[in-house]
Amino acid sequence: MDAPAFDPVAEHDKTRAALRGTAQRLGQLLDGVRDTDAPSALPGWTVGDVGAHLRAVYLAYSSSFTGEFDDWGSVLPPEDGPLAERIAAVNAKAVTLFGQDERAHLGDFVREHGETFLRVTEGLAPETPVPTPWYGQQVVLTLAVATGLMLSESLLHGLDIARGARLPWRIGPDEARLCIRQTMPTMMPLTLDRAKADGVRVSFDLAVRGGPRLTVVVADGAATVTCDESPVRPCDCRISADPVAFLLTAFRRTPLRKEIARGRMRAGGRRPWLALRLRGLIAGP
Question: Which of 36, 84, 204, 240 could form a disulfide with 283 if both were Cys (CB 3.0 to 4.6 A apart)?
Fold first, then answer.
């Protein structure tokens, strides 16, 4: 029996529902933080810094539609450069925008702006363009990708806060699949480390357990990613991955070798050892 055809509208609706629930959970997590100066799971950032970053994320995406924040000149680098460097610079600046009083009400802000984003984008098509100048002055993502990115930022940084604050936090497999399908086909090519990819020709068949399936081809300093399509020719390396394990390794929240040892990720194909190289080629989707 053939698999059901992919429905972008239905998938987008699922992502919106997941974001609504996650924003509420994230707000509750932030409410429960007792020491915002405690180290988070991100090197160099406190729990409060991660919360301030999330405040900036929710403000930025909401402002793409509401115009609430328009002082991008105070945050963005003057010129587009390598995306990893640009995002690092934006993140470092963004966490300084909010003082202690604002950090004391991060949970309320996330809940309110999560609902604002969902309200102002309700009924819009998944392919609606969303300006995202923090990724580059000319970068415009679709609403489907932007919603998926908000979900992944919420889930992963929620984990960073929970680890630092010693509070519970869960990322479910269905949430992870939504993040992977909605964001990675677009973001992996954007975040390719072009210096490392120079002269490299390699292909990966990435089968996430329960879906989706990504084909990643790196050639001539660029990457192409297709979703839920059989590769035209056999790939060099085939990776079978638990969705949560892949999300955590892709965003460097857990060591790849650890997930391989646990059986949550397996490599095969003609050159299975290349599985260890994929994460080095992608700066961070």
Answer: 84
